[in-house]
Amino acid sequence: MGSEDALLPVEPAFLKSLRSHVYGLVRDAILSGKLKSGEKLNERQLAGNLGISTTPLKEALRVLEAEGLVRSEARRGIYVTFDPAQAEEMMLARAAIESMIARQAAKRVTAEQILRMRALLVEMRTGLETVDVLELIHLNEQFHNVIHEASGCAYLRRLQGGQNIYNHTARLSVLSEERERFLAVEEHEAIADAIAQRKPDLAEQRMRDHVIRSGEKHLIRVSQSEDQKDRA
Amino acid sequence: MGSEDALLPVEPAFLKSLRSHVYGLVRDAILSGKLKSGEKLNERQLAGNLGISTTPLKEALRVLEAEGLVRSEARRGIYVTFDPAQAEEMMLARAAIESMIARQAAKRVTAEQILRMRALLVEMRTGLETVDVLELIHLNEQFHNVIHEASGCAYLRRLQGGQNIYNHTARLSVLSEERERFLAVEEHEAIADAIAQRKPDLAEQRMRDHVIRSGEKHLIRVSQSEDQKDRA
DNA sequence: GGTCCATCGTTGATATATCAGATTTCAGAT
DNA sequence: ATCTGAAATCTGATATATCAACGATGGACC
Questions:
Q1: In whole angstroms, what is the distance from residue A143 CA to residue A113 CA?
Q2: Which residue in A1, A145, B22, B149 is a FRET match for B15, CA 20 to 30 A apart?
Q3: Which strand D nucleotides have any atom less than 7 A from protein CB atoms?
Q4: How far apart (Å, rounded) are the C-alpha atoms in residues A103 and A115?
Q5: What pLDDT shows up at residue A231?
Q6: Which residues of chain B have pLDDT under 50?
Q7: Nearest Cβ partner of B100 from A67, A86, A96?
Q8: In this predicted structure, what is the pLDDT of residue A30?
Q9: Which residue is nearest nucleotide D15, judged by alpha carbon to C1' distance?
Q10: Would strands B70-73 and B77-80 be described as parallel, antiparallel, or unpaired?
Q11: Angle between the N-to-C axes of helices A84-108 and A200-231, in degrees from 0 to 180, rounded to the nearest 10
């Protein structure tokens, strides 16, 4: 027990409960299209496939139902309800919430937070040249996190998180475009300026436009790759 | 079976599943303050008090957790997480989402829907004089429903519904103020105009300001009545 | 030939039992 | 008196069994 392994958390697989693990699996399956809209889910069968009992699965399905990804009809069945139209609406929801967060951030941002935003933007500019997309994604997340922190809105932040439907791969794909990387940084700078100048209306508007514009990009990308899969 | 009772739905108590019934009970208890923030919920005990097993209760608690009204710590406990700060954020979330809906409605509204909005506004004006608050509440709901319908945004509508934290009594209380009734109708007319003129930005801005203003009114009302309860 | 209804299988809803992590308690050592 | 740690206990997590509603099937009757 003198080995350094002793300090590692026990077993990653057991840190998450079965239900949250299963929740993640089913959610990804729906968002990635492995489970298509209208498809019926059988509790017993699904639990059996996953090698678990129905209890944690039922709880996971309730959460997915609350999120609007599945619809449950009593004693009839559970159906997947996620299609391109809903994906677009979820993007709009993200825009609405994220822009409200930006609005609040413009009211409450501290001098220190403004400095952190600025520092991140400088790093992004640098990252544009070195074309380290992974690093750019990380910087983007940090940037948005500073704004979230500045807003002081824990609930909105949480609600916002529920509207994320794209995985790491999709983000990587979109930011692999040179023009998109450039646009993103430009828009982030404009948002930071609005917040630093404490202009809530402007910050809100710029954030909304940014999320919608980059969101549409994602939607197009994904629908294209779906087409490819269908053709195959 | 010749009696007219035969036409009534079987037993109201059984139309809703236990879990959705319990979900409503616990949610109301949290929002009304009967269960205060930080309070610990015991699954066995709560299920026992309600005379049900833990299974439907667990599912209801998962939904409440997904909504952010409780927080579950594995094998430790379930805690209520709803306070005035979150109530305000939920109001802001409602403003963000409802204004995004109004924006979409301004893009897609039909001539027929504009006529329906106008007709409802006329009724509201009349209602102002007769001071039938119940009828006014109903008209307000119908008005917002027309906008929701015009937006064509089923998901946003659903998400919006989750941000409603005030019951019928609270709404009645706020609209019992003459000035509030007048303001509400004024604002609704302004929103309808923006949508009818198909000006998304204007509709969004007016809807946001309307929801925030009337929302603040609710927040003040409720915090006042909470103070009264505390004093008693 | 078509309609009606009884029956049975499917499936989610609910109840109950068991498992395992976390906290508390208290005896025993320092 | 304080600290340690093992046992008792509390509690959520999971598994399993049972219930009950919905729908499909098929035979009887008109």
A1: 10
A2: B149
A3: 11-17, 20-23
A4: 18
A5: 79
A6: 1-13
A7: A96
A8: 97
A9: A53
A10: antiparallel
A11: 160
Q: What one-letter code names the amino acid at A29?
A: A
Task: Give me the residue from B66, B100, B155 closest to A86, CB to CB.
Answer: B155
Element (H, E) at B70: strand B70-73
Query: Which contacts of B154-159 are long-range, i.e. CB under 8 A and separated by 24 or more positions?
Result: B154/A86, B154/A89, B155/A68, B155/A86, B155/A89, B155/A90, B155/A93, B156/A89, B156/A92, B156/A93, B156/A96, B156/B97, B156/B100, B156/B101, B156/B104, B157/B101, B158/A68, B159/A68, B159/A93, B159/B97
Contact A90, A165 (CB under 8 A): yes
Residue A87: predicted pLDDT: 97
What's the confidence (pLDDT) of residue B15? 63
The closest of A12, A1, A19, A110 to A56, measured between CA atoms, is A19
**Rounded to whole angstroms, how far apart are CA atoms B215 and B180?**
11
Identify the residue whose tokens are 């993200």.
A94
**Token digits for A52?**
């678990």
The answer to whether B133 and B175 are in contact (CB under 8 A) is yes
All domains of chain A in start order, with CATH:
4-80 (1.10.10.10), 84-231 (1.20.120.530)
Own/partner pairs, B46-50, CB within 8 angstroms, 24+ separation: B50/B22, B50/B25
Residue A13: per-residue pLDDT:
47
pLDDT at A112: 98
Q: Do A89 and B55 touch (CB under 8 A)?
A: no
Candidates A77, A95, A81; CA nearest to A31 is A81
Instruction: Give the span between the Cα atoms of A152 and B74, in whole angstroms.
Output: 26
Residue of B43, B55, B100 best to disrupt the A interface, most CBs of A under 10 A: B100
Give the dihedral sign, CA A81/A84/A88/A94.
Answer: positive
What's the average pLDDT block by block, 10 residues per block, for chain A (232 residues)? 35 71 97 95 96 97 98 94 97 98 98 98 90 90 98 98 94 92 96 98 98 96 81 74
Q: A140-161: b or e for each residue (b if 16 or more CB lie within 10 Å)?
A: beebbebbbbbbbbebbbbbbe
Phi-psi domain of A152 (left: phi exceeds 0; alpha: psi -120 through 50; beta: other): left
